[in-house]
Design a protein that fits this description.
With 635 residues, the protein is of the alpha+beta class. The protein is 32% helix and 27% strand. The protein folds into 3 domains: 2-152, D-tyrosyl-trna(Tyr) Deacylase, Chain: A (3-Layer(bba) Sandwich), CATH 3.50.80; 164-500, BirA Bifunctional Protein, domain 2; 516-629, Rossmann fold (3-Layer(aba) Sandwich), CATH 3.40.50.800. β3 (39-45), α1 (54-72) and β4 form a beta-alpha-beta unit. It is globular. The two termini are 48 Å apart. The chain binds one RNA strand of 75 nucleotides through α5, β17, β21, α14 and β27.
RNA sequence: GCUGGCGUAGCUCAGUGGUAGAGCAGUUGAUUUGUAAUCAACUUGUCGGGGGUUCAAGUCCUCUCGCCAGCUCCA
């Protein structure tokens, strides 16, 4: 629904002729009215999408209008149907429904005048012209008026209204805590460093994040290492990816796909535009905070995909599967757009366009769901340990008190098996679609946490979207549980967590570098002089054949300078070649990890790299193999 | 959105009212180098943008844009 509001000195209108069949019957006054005092006129264009919930848009507009009227000290409001505000009008029936509803709501507080619907009307007004005298509005079904939101809050239905907090240690002992004195909990007196991280996470969740005022390290790294950067041709929160960053992104996606396939999912892909009048929008909008991007191709309002579910659910709904085929497992690389508020977007931690690696399992029973839930939890723990946060992470949980009590032992055992402490936030009732979900939180250098993976237990959407399996008798049953999981919550956040984790290394005197399989250049050949370039190229060919990204620094610099540059680029292995190597055929390998130089044969070197990257995806060099051919992207 | 901070060369930054600078990077030349910076010369500017104060503004005022931090929320 689109609206235009005007604060006017007076307002007169007169119905002239019928514009359509469904026009309202004019009352005795022949649709004429003259208001000779200050009033508010609301021109209203009801849109197709509003049919999802006419009462929702009406309540929002009513609430805004009442506030506006009180601010302007006005007691009369005119409801004026004005279809020309939108290119995508609803049916007259819906529009009338909205007007009726609106009239009813407004008349509780104000004197309301209705202009007739479906007539060509003459009108006359005089806008007062002060800064608050004109305003436009856009309302989407599914949003609640702020009063309704406030009521909800009081009823304790908002996710922030958690009523119980439980900390669980590595042994599986649980401790109830509260926001006042959580720091007294004996768990935090334990020696293992992971409890310090847990405390940091709990205090971020319960209290205030510590204000370090520092720029996160990952932003510096993403630019200076030419991975990702701001894009001045786009808006904030949308980034450009340089070749090296893109390589890393694609390798992570390769890995996520590999993981999903091993799990038994098939990969599919949905569009990024969602029709505004499709029922998923109305059903799910409220759960994603309406931070949508609207797109108008001239055929009615559409939304850029704001989450994976609104398209993944229809996909599963339309898939026919039987009790022999459950759980139905799907995997998707889902590009999502969220029109985050100004000031919320920050580096790679919070962006407006991100790629999720999304997994769903539609399960036929709780038992089936439990099994999948466990498998995914343990799998993601490996990801956190091996790739993203190398032991510097903790587990957060959100769910209902009821689900927690019923499944306490099981939930706690999951964390125990992952060897990670956990923090539960529990609410009395479900506020979203999940009964329980966990969040894998990487702990960063600046005392913050970055949420990456998640596994969620959805008990609502099987039924709501009629996603179900066919039983032995040919009857369809909605799935009682759908597991939602995201291996790499988003690629952007994954990269953020990896970079922040590297920053912690650097601070502790460990050489900062990417995991070998993600290093854009895994090995660089450094020639002692340009006479060895042909030999270097030959060597490069040999090594490259074994799926190793190796380039050659052929620039006219001293060996010392080239080493320095290679180290600054975090290249794991630097191979200096000169007379000695040419004669012996051996390599002089400088390893960044242990800061040592070793002599080994070419085969030994290849074997070592292959062994260290075994099972991980591979892609070739993102830039020309001769370093002299690399352009400068950042500085 | 609100509060605070920052914005000067491709990068990192100095410049507190009086001729726009340094280091790195880049280009050219010399050098042919053995494990974290070879030497020299040269190039590089809408001082984020608009407006104002002033004889004079990178510097002071004002508006605006961008970035960062916090509030809030999430993947």
């Amino acid at each position: 629904m689109k609206t235009l509001g005007i604060h006017t000195k007076y307002f007169r209108f007169e119905g002239r002729e019928k514009a359509m069949e469904g026009a309202e019957v004019l009352k005795a006054d022949h649709g004429e009215m003259s208001i000779d005092h200050e009033c508010i006129v609301i021109f209203i264009g009801v849109e197709k999408g509003d049919s999802e919930s006419p009462s929702s848009v009406a309540s929002q507009l009513a609430s805004d209008t009442v506030k506006r009227a009180s601010a302007l000290n006005v007691e009369t409001v005119v409801i004026y149907p004005y279809v020309h505000l939108t290119e995508n009008p609803s049916t007259p029936r819906i529009a009338l429904q909205v007007m009726d509803d609106l009239e009813q709501r407004l008349s509780q507080y104000l004197s309301v005048v209705r202009a007739p619907f479906g007539w060509y009307k003459a009108f006359d007004l005089s806008c007062l012209g002060h800064p608050l005298s004109e305003w436009s509005g856009r309302y989407i079904p599914g949003e609640e008026a702020e009063e309704a939101k406030a009521e909800e809050k009081e009823e304790g239905r908002k996710p922030s209204e958690f009523v119980r907090f439980v900390v669980v240690d590595l042994e599986g002992e649980d401790y109830e805590v509260n926001s006042e004195d959580f720091s007294q909990c004996p768990v935090f007196k334990k020696k293992q460093p992971v409890y310090k991280m847990l405390k940091q996470f709990v205090s971020n969740e319960l209290g205030r994040a510590e204000d370090t005022g520092k720029r996160p390290k990952h932003i510096e790294y993403m630019q200076t290492h030419e991975l990702v950067d701001y894009c001045d041709a786009s808006e904030k929160g949308h980034y450009k990816w340089y070749p090296k960053g893109l390589l890393i992104q694609k390798l992570i996606l390769d890995y996520a796909a590999q993981l999903a396939h091993e799990w038994g999912a098939f990969e599919m892909k949905n569009p990024i535009i969602i029709r505004g009048d499709h029922n998923v929008v109305g059903e799910l909008m409220g759960e994603f905070h309406e931070r949508d991007y609207q797109v108008d191709g001239g055929r009615g309002v559409c939304y850029l995909r704001y989450a994976s579910d609104p398209l993944a659910f229809p996909f599963m709904q339309n898939t026919i599967f039987t009790h022999k085929q459950t759980p139905l497992k799907v995997y998707e690389e889902a590009t999502c757009f969220r029109n985050e508020q100004e000031g919320e977007v920050s580096g790679l931690k919070r962006v407006r366009n991100f790629m999720m690696t999304d997994m769903h399992a539609a399960c036929a029973s709780n038992e089936e769901a439990r099994k999948e839930y466990e498998i995914l939890c343990l799998k993601f723990a490996e990801l956190m340990n091996n790739i993203i946060a190398r032991g510097r992470w903790v587990l957060g949980w959100e769910g209902t008190v009821g689900f927690f009590e019923e499944n306490k032992d099981w939930l706690i055992s999951i964390g125990k098996r992952m060897q990670v402490p956990a923090f539960f936030k529990l609410m009395p009732e479900m506020s979203h679609y999940f009964a329980i979900k966990n969040e894998y939180q990487a702990i960063t250098d600046d005392k913050a946490n970055v949420q990456v993976s998640t596994v969620q237990w959805d008990v609502k959407d099987g039924e709501r979207f009629n996603i179900g399996y066919i039983d032995e008798n040919g009857h369809k049953h909605p799935c009682p549980v759908i597991i939602h999981a995201s291996s790499f919550g988003s690629i952007e956040r994954t990269l953020c967590a990896i970079l922040e984790n590297i920053a912690i290394d650097a601070k502790r005197g460990i050489a900062p570098m990417f995991p070998l399989w993600l290093s854009p250049t895994q090995a660089r050949i450094i020639t002692v002089s340009d006479t060895f370039i042909p030999f270097a190229e030959e060597l490069c060919n040999t090594i490259s054949r074994y799926n190793i990204r190796v380039d050659i620094d052929d620039r006219d610099d001293t060996v010392g300078k080239k080493i320095r540059n290679g180290e600054k680029e975090w290249i794991p292995y630097l191979l200096v070649v000169g007379e000695k190597e040419k004669d012996s055929g051996n390599l002089s390998v400088r390893s960044r990890e242990d800061r040592r130089q070793k002599e080994m044969t070419v085969d030994e070197f290849i074997g070592m790299i292959n062994e260290k990257t075994e099972g991980m995806p591979f892609r070739p060099l993102p830039l020309p193999r001769l370093v002299s051919k690399h352009p400068i992207f950042y500085g």
